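Inverse folding, one chain.
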């Protein structure tokens, strides 16, 4: 069950990037559960990671290796998160990095590891190491579709985005994949995102955009309010598009950033659309807030309310649940007579109570749609923010109750 079209786009190959998949049999025999990114020499990588203090062993190592040198390979396994595994988890993750380094003639610091799956189980490093020759033999520029499928866990469909943009005399390609369906509230679910471009991005701009674009996309989605131990989102730039290095002052910087933002948003929205058991894609807009934090506090309180989310699933315009969530969001001195709450274009709340022109029929018509917008106008300032979420269905409980079986 998922919301909207689930077909992968046509992936444009990114110069300087090859991907590959293989089966290590980590959780299920024969399943493609290993994915690799091979980056050309001179590529630059930046990323954001989970803020969960029980972050997984590969997160610790990827952070360290990212600072140490020039990443050349990203190694991703599914079926096992290698989180909550203590010292052994670090040893296992490093063993995989070391083995890949030996297979490729690279330094161990050139390997960035990523894992997703069940928390608390030892990583079967031996299986991964044994599958590395097969994995390396399968790399190619046209393996993006396979990579998108290879990083899935409880996802019902692969997620990808790709586009090309003309920057003067040179064409830039951007392609990316993501995974995630539950344990999603990135806070930089199990969320992974990998976006690559052949543009030549200056190091400081790459780092800045990685943080900003992640904040505006993956850090604005939530399925269930649970921040994973393994969240990671990487931005890779190979510099092989044939043009000059792009800095913040470059004439085409804004155009490239806009294209990158579109990819980030598509990949983040795809996670919400494929939320475990999701039947509704919900945009929560908060306008005229006094600050970004205030806007996000209100948006996330509504997005995380089980009562709001179950009403969404039932297509029940129980607007009192939205009102109650806004009221407990912790906004100081909230003017109840001024704020307004909308469901689509239907005003629910005005002057502290139900809007005079509201009708149950109009509310029901909006709630029955597959894509819904809840708009809260606080009338306190000039700040607006958006958060994307989904409903809670019977299937969400079933999927998570049976996750390890």
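Residues assigned per position:
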């Amino acid at each position: 069950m998922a919301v909207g079209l689930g077909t992968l786009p046509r992936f444009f190959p990114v110069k300087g990037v090859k991907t590959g998949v293989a089966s290590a049999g980590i959780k299920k025999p024969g399943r493609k559960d290993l994915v690799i990114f091979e980056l050309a020499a001179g590529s630059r990588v930046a990323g954001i990671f989970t803020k969960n203090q029980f972050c997984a062993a590969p997160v610790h190592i990827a952070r360290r290796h990212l600072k140490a040198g020039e990443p050349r390979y990203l190694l991703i396994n599914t079926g096992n998160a290698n989180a909550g595994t203590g010292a052994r988890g670090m040893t296992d993750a490093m063993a995989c990095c070391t083995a890949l380094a030996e297979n490729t003639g690279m330094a161990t610091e050139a390997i960035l590891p990523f894992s997703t799956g069940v928390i608390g189980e030892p990583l079967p490093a031996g299986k991964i190491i044994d599958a590395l020759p097969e994995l390396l033999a399968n790399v190619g520029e046209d393996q993006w579709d396979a990579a998108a499928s290879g990083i899935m866990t409880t996802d019902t469909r692969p997620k990808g985005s790709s586009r090309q943009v003309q920057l003067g005399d040179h064409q830039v390609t951007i392609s990316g994949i993501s995974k995630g369906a539950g344990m999603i509230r990135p806070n930089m679910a199990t969320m992974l995102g990998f976006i690559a471009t052949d543009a030549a991005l200056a190091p400081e701009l790459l780092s800045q955009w990685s943080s900003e674009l992640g904040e505006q996309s993956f850090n604005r989605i939530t399925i269930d309010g649970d921040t994973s131990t393994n969240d990671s989102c990487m931005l890779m730039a190979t510099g092989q598009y044939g043009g000059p290095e792009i800095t913040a002052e470059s004439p085409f910087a804004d155009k490239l950033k806009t294209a990158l933002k579109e990819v980030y948003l598509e990949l983040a929205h795809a996670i919400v659309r494929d939320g475990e058991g999701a039947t509704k894609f919900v945009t929560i807009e908060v306008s005229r807030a006094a600050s970004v934090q205030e806007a996000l506090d209100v948006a996330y309180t509504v997005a995380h309310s089980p009562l709001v989310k179950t009403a969404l699933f039932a297509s029940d315009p129980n607007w009192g649940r939205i009102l109650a969530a806004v009221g407990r969001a912790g906004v100081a001195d909230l003017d109840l007579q001024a704020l307004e709450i909308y469901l689509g274009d239907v005003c629910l709340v005005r002057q502290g109570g139900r809007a005079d022109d509201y009708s149950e029929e109009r509310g029901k018509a909006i709630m029955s749609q597959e894509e819904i917008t809840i708009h809260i106008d606080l009338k306190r300032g000039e700040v607006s923010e958006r958060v994307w979420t989904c409903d809670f269905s019977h299937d969400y409980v079933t999927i998570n109750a049976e996750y390890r079986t």
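DSSP finds eleven helices and 15 strands in the chain. The longest strand covers residues 170-179.
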